[in-house]
Amino acid sequence: MDAQLMRELEELGGEILPNSLRECDEIIIDQPSFSARIALWGGHLVSFVPAGQPDLLFQSANEGAQTRFGRRHFGVPVCWPWFGSNVEDEDLPAHGLARYFRWQLVEVGRFKNGDVKIVIRLASEDHPLIEEMWPYAFELRQVFRLGDGFSINFSAANLTDKPMPISEALHTYFHIGDTQSAEVHGLEGVKYVDKFDDNAISKQSGVVSPCEALDRVYLNAPDVLELHDPVFKRKFVVASEGAQSTVLWNPGEALAKLRTDMEEGDYRQFVCVETANALDNQYEIPAGEMHQLRLTVHAEATSQD
Ligand SMILES: O=P(O)(O)OC[C@H]1O[C@@H](O)[C@H](O)[C@@H](O)[C@@H]1O
Q1: Reported ipTM
Q2: pLDDT of residue 24
Q3: How many whole angstroms separate alpha carbon 40 and alpha carbon 62?
Q4: Where does the pLDDT of residue 23 fall: very low under 50, low under 70, confident under 90, or very high at 90 and above?
Q5: What is the pLDDT of residues 257-278, one digit of tens each?
Q6: Vertex 214, ends 210 and 219: CA angle to 5°?
Q7: The whole model's pTM is what?
Q8: Residue 76: which domain range?
Q9: Catalytic annotation on 171?
Q10: Where is the active site (predicted)?
Q11: Atom of ligand 1 nearest to the CA of 255
């Protein structure tokens, strides 16, 4: 690790700790108003705990298989450059390659208002396996802004001389008290593809509740949604830019039982509200250009709902 970066991280009250998972480091940031963890393996925000509140992101005791393509079920995994299964090659892992490689820490500092800034990077040239999995040259960056809530600015640059086909998601596992009482607001009237109903197309009527046994891709979804959690008495305000789709996912009891990467009862404690471009919302990044996907999450206390 670069000595200058280490010093800057220490000045922020941060540290790098070895993590047993794939023997890859995690960045730990401890501040008076929050603590956060970013895993370099898979390059994702794992945990964000505002002082005095439960983690905004779901944590499982089950870390998943320790193999390269073993899954992890917490935080904000990055699904890129394909969302879901790879239509051209079924042997490739679901949800792309970005969550299966080690990202590099490239910048540590603060924004003008004092928020913590952490920047990590992954490029196609970083690992020969990346180039085997996908025939495009790229550079990805994530700028994490940590303060009153968090934001992730994910950018992808196409370094090839051909258009790059992209479907993607910031696959946020929101930590909730109970799927049965949680509600997603803001998708009323939006069309969705229901993967649990043979990809039937439906239109959302009313709020989404309960948030259990769902696998839906909402197309051309609005930029701001709310997730209400009456158990923890808070609501998440989830805002996005550069994303046309919202995916809601929770495996429900029966599917969760079949998974080897979740503990019993885990599925009641999270719903994924994913900032995405999927199915009809997939797109191309022109040669030499880049695309940005931004996610901002704030948690607000609620009294009665
Ligand atoms: O287990 P994974 O690969 O992380 O995927 C979890 C789920 O992610 C969701 O985004 C998909 O819509 C689901 O179909 C999928 O099952």
Answers
A1: 0.98
A2: 67
A3: 18
A4: low
A5: 998 889 999 999 999 999 999 9
A6: 110
A7: 0.95
A8: 3-301
A9: yes
A10: 171, 274
A11: 16
Given the residues 183, 228, 274, 291, select the one marked as catalytic.
274
- CATH code: domain of residue 199: 2.70.98.10
Classify each residue of 127-153 as buried b or exposed e, where b means 16 or more C-beta atoms within 10 Å of its C-beta: eeebeebbebbbbbbbbbbbbebbbbb
Q: Is 274 a catalytic residue?
A: yes
User: Does residue 110 line the site of ligand 1, with CB under 6 A?
Assistant: no
Q: How far apart are the first and last CA of the chain?
A: 46
User: Number of structural domains, the chain?
Assistant: 1
247 touches ligand 1 (CB under 6 Å): yes
d(CA 82, CA 283): 11
234-257 tens-digit pLDDT: 999 999 999 999 999 999 999 999
**Tens of pLDDT, residues 163-186:** 999 999 999 999 999 999 999 999
**Number of neighbouring beta carbons within 10 Å of residue 168:** 29
